[in-house]
Amino acid sequence: SSRPGLAHSATAVAHPNIALIKYWGKSDERLFLPRTDSLSMTLDIFPTTTRVRLAPEAGQDTVTFNGRPATGEAERRIIAFLELVRERAGRAERADVDTENTVPTGAGLASSASGFAALAVAAAAAYGLELDAAGLSRLARRGSGSASRSIFGDFAVWHAGRTDGTPEEADLSSYAEPVRTAPLDPALVIAVVNAGPKEVSSRTAMRRTMDTSPLFEPWALSSKGDLADMRAALGRGDLPAVGEIAERNALGMHATMLAARPAVRYLSPATLTVLDSVLALRRDGVPAYATMDAGPNVKVLCRRADADRVAETVRAAAPGGAVHIAGPGPGARLLAE
Ligand code: 2P0
């Protein structure tokens, strides 16, 4: 509502994204500046819907997550994000945040990406902060790096930003934007081999990898080449090339973690069983390629027309786990209240 005297409120919805060129490692932890550029596909499943309602009488923020009060680190991060929005908007009122998340939290299924993208769009609107899409992406980045990409639908690239200037210059130049592609008709088949929360947070794992892994810098360097190759493959609509590049980039990222001291290993026996089934699909002539994030679950990129067959195959490889089929989804947006 924009009626004076009444609490302002805004509701936004955003979807998770899966990186085909990974974000792993920060050059600035406070500003969420990534060490490398990354590129992702936003999904059409697992939306997060978030309402931010200003509460001028309240002495503190309240955060409700799937109907329950948020606690601990999740609550702390959301309140820190509201502080940032208030600072930028020159406002002081506290807020009630109510968020409904349909994705398993903390399992490497990108719940923080949809979560902070929806929060950025809703909070900016509620506090009267007028931002274009790049500005919203920069803002969402401060909640969780990968959220910068969920502002956009389909494929998005997140720029690491300038590294030769001040932190402010880097901050201004690190945001996501859409990537043009030739028609691909892709699907991501998501094999949930374990929906529980991860043992090591992305933040901790990234920091340890950068600080201790001798493979980190070589991967960061090779990721630049992967991104250039990926843009070209997307531009010509070459799904097998897109998949091959995504798979090698993800395996390289996991190699950097395996070489950290102590090692960070998100991949489980069930993960490797699914990876074997993806190789078997390729041997049978089905273009299917795997990517894994900060957890044991596997996302298989394939053609939409092959998605049911791919889903059957990975379901047989990892019995008991849920399998979801996602297509390219929309960017974050405000809902009419
Ligand atoms: C990505 N991941 O590009 C990479 C690949 C996981 C593996 O972004 O610390 O939740 O909040 O910026 O975005 C997961 O890390 O980390 C992630 P923060 P985020 O999707």
From TrEMBL:
Domain (Mvd1 C-terminal): residue spans on this chain: 189-319
Pfam families linked: MDD_C (PF18376), MVD-like_N (PF22700)
Domain Diphosphomevalonate decarboxylase-like N-terminal: 14-164
Cleavable signal peptide: none
Nucleotide-binding recorded as keyword: yes
Record carries keyword Secreted: no
GO MF terms held by the record: diphosphomevalonate decarboxylase activity
Keywords: ATP-binding, Lipid biosynthesis, Lipid metabolism, Lyase, Nucleotide-binding
Enzyme Commission code(s) on record: 4.1.1.33
Family recorded in the similarity comment: Belongs to the diphosphomevalonate decarboxylase family.
Name by which UniProt lists this protein: diphosphomevalonate decarboxylase
Species name: Streptomyces justiciae
Classification lineage: Bacteria, Bacillati, Actinomycetota, Actinomycetes, Kitasatosporales
